[in-house]
Design a protein that fits this description.
This protein is α+β, with helices and mostly antiparallel strands and 255 residues long. It has 3 helices and 14 strands.
Amino acid sequence: MLKRIGFAAAAVLVIAGVLVGSFVLAPSLAPSPVLAGNSLQVSATSDQYAGIDVSGTGKVFVKPNIAISNIGVEVTSPTLADATSQANTKMSAVISQIKSMGVDDKDIQTTNYSVQPLTDQSNTGGRTPKITGYRVDNQVSVTVRNLSDLGKILDAAVAAGANNIYGVSFSVDDPTSYQQQARAAAVKDAMDKGAQLAKAAGLTLGKIVWMTEGAPSPQPRVLAAPAGFAASANVPVETGQLEIDVSVQMRFAIQ
């Protein structure tokens, strides 16, 4: 006989399908523990499955220290050679300008280079559409480590020929210490919940049976930037703060 005690908004006792009280007794051929949020599970056949399962979450809020932006050059021309030449020339000028403002080579990376033929779809009469030109799109990802220069760098990139800014995201270059703080907070949160559940059930919380962690997740803050804005716009930048969170799942033995 496997006994399961669950905490929910409306707890019930079922014996042979009859509703009689505040927890559940259900027959089972073999104990099979179930992880279901904040729950208490008791096995009459084996103590190794008895326990309280809880989840915990820890959050740390930090100020970003880097910004990442995708900067692009898009050119349309009647010939592929001209479109390619213009795109290459403009992107070279953009990269040169960005580097002149203190951005290292390692912080500039090509993320997209595409060529798209443009066709006339009108009055084809079932024939293959005629190619009327080509669109070349070249994009680089730029990491800015001095945030006070971000607005000036975006302005300078546009002045040098960039006509697309695909938003800006803010992050931290090394989130390790913040993840450690969030992890400790998540474990404390889970232990507090376990103690509360055990106390409410009139039980004594035992040792930790197992524990797992979800992947730490810094939540980047994204600032949208309109494509093709003027270099004289003097781009205002507000970094806000980031949320770094860690979640854990834990099972405690009960005594």
